[in-house]
Amino acid sequence: MATTVDIRATGIKEALRELNSIDKRLRRQITKDYQAIVAPVVTDAKQHTPDKAPLSGWDRNWTPQGSSQSVLPFQGNTTGKAPRKPTKREMNYPSGRRQYGEWAKWDAGIKAYISGKRPTTFGGYTRNLAAFGVRWQGRAAVLFDTSGQSRTQQGARMVAALNSKFGTPSRVMWRAYERSDSQVQYELRKLVNKVMQAVGREI
Fold first, then answer.
1. What's the confidence (pLDDT) of residue 170?
2. Which of 69-73, 75-79, 87-91, 121-125 is the most confident on average?
3. Is pLDDT at 107 greater than 80 in this prediction?
4. How far apart are the first and last CA of the chain?
5. Does position 76 have pLDDT exceeding 80, yes or no?
6. pLDDT by residue (tens digit) across 117-163?
7. How far apart are CA 5 and CA 134, in angstroms?
8. Could you give the CA distance from residue 131 to residue 8 in angstroms, rounded to a whole number?
9. Residues 6+ apart with CB under 8 A from 9
10. What pLDDT, on a 0 to 100 scale, did the predictor assign at position 74?
């Protein structure tokens, strides 16, 4: 699960896939260019992400009933070079699973991404629509950034505490994007034009 800011552009996913097949070097440069464009959003979001558990109890383990994956403890934003993600074969061994744990901690950070994946629909919900985005990966990230209502009194108290200390949802991601919205959109239009021209398409 992740909390994201997505930017869509019609036809860009097909163009990105085509570019990857005809000029991989330029495709890699497009990723670098995009990361530079949204660097202010990523930096802003990181600056407004708690380094420690934002509420009492969030530093303890918590796995929701019926789930096999824990939501807490809260791990603030992560930085630094990505550890190597183990292969499927390595995951059969304890060392590989430990390596995956280190990679998963790093992957929970706030990062920009470009997706050329084709949209897929399942159960009436379509995924992979966005071509460009900034993602804060992790269940605790979703809990912190988007919690706005609850069916239980305990949950309602948690939401009220989050609202009091950090504001209403989205507490990090969307606000960070809004503060750089105009410049990001301007630079992104130029980047999309660059991609389309590279594959000989009209926007």
1. 94
2. 87-91
3. no
4. 32
5. no
6. 888 888 877 777 788 999 887 778 889 999 999 989 999 999 999 99
7. 5
8. 6
9. 131, 132, 188, 192
10. 84
* Residue 87 tokens, joined: 């292969």
Which H, E and C letters describe the chain, residue by residue? CEEEEEECCCCHHHHHHHHHHHCHHHHHHHHHHHHHHCHHHHHHHHHCCCCCCCCCCCCCCECCCCCCCCCECCCCCCCCCCCCCCCCCHHHCHHHHHHHHHHHHHHCCEEEEECCCCCEEECCEEECCCCEEEEEECHHHHHHHHCCCCCCHHHHHHHHHHHHHHCCCCCCHHHHHHCCHHHHHHHHHHHHHHHHHHCCCCC
Q: Residue 144, CB half-sphere, CA atoms under 13 Å: how many? A: 31
Query: For tokens 């980047």, what's the residue?
Result: 191
Q: Which two tokens stand for residue 60?
A: 């303890």
Domain ranges in the chain are 2-77+108-198
Structure tokens at 154: 């305990």
pTM reported for the whole predicted model:
0.77
Cis preceding-peptide flag for 95 (omega within 30 of 0)? no
Distance between CA atoms of residues 164 and 142, nearest Å: 18
d(CA 54, CA 75): 10
Please determine, for residue 36, whether its predicted confidence score (pLDDT) is greater than 90: yes
- β-bridge mates for residue 126, sequence order: 121
